[in-house]
Design brief:
The structure is a single chain. This protein is mainly α and 141 residues long. It is 76% helix and 0% strand. It contains two helices and no strands. The chain is rod-shaped and about 165 Å long. Residues 1-42 are annotated as: Disordered. Residues 12-22 have a biased composition (Acidic residues).
Length: 141
């Protein structure tokens, strides 16, 4: 009675022997180029779901970035308008200050002239006072 000894090498098992033509004609899928059982399809679905999630997240990030950019552009435009209005107001105020300065120069010149006239009148009244005192002294001894 001869006992049949099975080889310990699983690659030599004839139970799972696949015909070479079947192996070569097997549909290709995955990184290795061959589909291995049902797990590969499940794994591929998981990768496809993950890919779609990442694409959706990318789309949301792009959308938020665009919205943020649009908000920034709106604020930039608003700031530009405020800057323009401020510059216009400053030009008006500068013109007003220049007009005030011119008016002050005119007022100062007028005051100098008026002071000269007052001083002239003061001299005349001093002379008249002296004359009137002399006349009064002559009339009233």
């Amino acid at each position: 009675m001869a006992k049949e000894v099975k080889s310990a090498n699983p690659f030599l098992d004839d139970d799972e022997d696949i015909d070479d033509n079947d192996f070569l004609n097997h549909p290709r899928q995955g990184k290795s180029g061959y589909m291995f059982g049902n797990d590969s399809g499940n794994e591929q679905n998981e990768w496809e779901i993950k890919r779609k999630q990442l694409l959706e997240e990318r789309r949301r990030i792009e959308e938020r970035t665009l919205q943020s950019t649009n908000n920034s552009l709106g604020l930039l435009h608003e700031s530009e308008q405020v800057g323009i209005l401020t510059a216009e107001e400053l030009v008006k105020q500068r013109e007003q200050l220049e007009n005030i300065e011119e008016n002050l120069d005119v007022i100062n010149n007028t005051m100098r002239t008026s002071q000269k006239h007052i001083n002239s009148l003061k001299s005349i009244f001093e002379v008249l006072k002296i004359i009137s005192v002399k006349v009064v002294k002559q009339i009233l001894p």
